[in-house]
Amino acid sequence: MNRTTHPIEREDLMAWLDGELSPERAASVAAHVKVCDECLALAEELRRVSAQMAAWKVEPAPASLDARVSDALQQTPQREVLSSLPSKRRFLIPTWAWQLGAVAALLLIIVAISIPNLLRSRMAANEATRESLERSRLAQQIMTDAEKQQAAVGRGEAGIPQPSGPMIIRSATLVVVSKEFDAARGAFERLLRQHGGYIAQLSISGQGGTARALTATLRVPADRMDALFAELKKIGRVEGEGQMGEEVTQQYVDLVARQKNARVTEQRLAQILTQRTGKVSDVLEVEREIARVRGEIEQMEAQRKTLENQVAFASVKFELREEYQAQLNITPPSTSTRLRNAAVEGYKSATENAIDLAVFFLNAGPTLLLWGLIFFWPARLLWRRFRRATA
């Protein structure tokens, strides 16, 4: 028997036959014995051995043996009998003493065999009791957490707004050009505060002597977006605008339904955990499943709140540009400034050329040196021949 195919040990089977297991553990062992032929055969063998040992008795000595022993003693002289016994202590051991000794030896053997089995059965019972207590403790803890969460869910579901109409996520874009950039910026911030909105993102670009631009993402209550949009168009010249709406009513309803079903599944798992008879590993497996379902519930709760926030607050992408006219500078720079700029440019140019030349020699120098050494001797030989021919 191994623990992979037989979830019960041989000691548990012996303890079950002796009636020493807890009711839950005994029911589990009995259910396994009904479906396992090997364990059933082992149980029948143990019952048969136990019945044989219980029915075994020491047979009394036959009456004919006592008669023969008495005749032999009467026929044999007493001196011969005494001479056959040990010289120091000569006595006769009665038959009942032999029988008593045999019974005592048999009892000792039975006790020696039974004590280890009793100890193993007691240890198995203690282990089963400990597992049962641990399972009950974990089940009670999970049920307590489930009840607390269920109560919190009950309180929270009452506050979930059910969609009475279509749920629409609204968004808009607006591009405005203004000559007074600072005044227009202050006006748009003031209007945003008046309508209960806030800035989700803001960036400003532009340097001195160039046109500035402001890009912002605004969040405003959906029922006030039209009023804010109309007032923002008054702070400058509108160059572009647009609005868009996305209906998410069905998505929201499906999400709420899946969330409720997940909560019902979590409650059922908690009930199964309290009614299940198994080991700590089974309890931990159910607990992991509960944790997985609870994670899905929290994720769907976050998605639901995100949808509600997107529906409640519209998104407006606002861009403010400055209408800028370049200034003509007719005053020429002074002579000293021009000379200084020329000197700086010349120094920079010379430095860059020197660096470029050094980089060229460092990069191409080894290659040029190698080819120079290769062609030096052939070129020298050709040059000498040319001089002899001309001479």
Task: Give an overview in words.
With 391 residues, the protein is an alpha+beta fold. It folds into 2 domains: 10-135, no CATH class; 168-322, Alpha-Beta Plaits, CATH 3.30.70. It has helices at residues 10-17, 23-35, 37-55, 63-75, 78-84, 95-157, 181-194, 225-232, 249-275, 280-312, 335-390, and strands at residues 168-178, 198-205, 213-221, 237-247, 313-322. The chain has a 5-stranded mixed beta sheet with strand order 2-3-5-1-4. The longest helix has 63 residues, at 95-157.
Instruction: Name the CATH homologous superfamily of the largest domain.
Output: ACT domain
Count of structural domains: 2
How much strand? 5-15%
Named CATH architecture of the largest domain = 2-Layer Sandwich
Strand order, main sheet: write it out. Answer: 2-3-5-1-4
User: Would you report the number of β strands?
Assistant: 5
Described by the principal axes of the CA atoms, the overall outline is elongated
Structural class: alpha+beta
Question: What is the helical fraction, as a range of percent?
Answer: 55-70%
Reading the helices and strands in chain order gives HHHHHHEHEEHEHHEH
Q: Give the low-pLDDT segments.
A: 85-91, 155-159
Global Rg: 52 Å
For this structure, the CATH topology of the largest domain is Alpha-Beta Plaits
User: Which CATH class of the largest domain is shown?
Assistant: Alpha Beta
Q: What average pLDDT do the residues reach? A: 77
Main sheet? 5 strands, mixed
**Helix count, DSSP H or I runs of 4 or more residues:** 11
**End-to-end C-alpha gap:** 114 Å
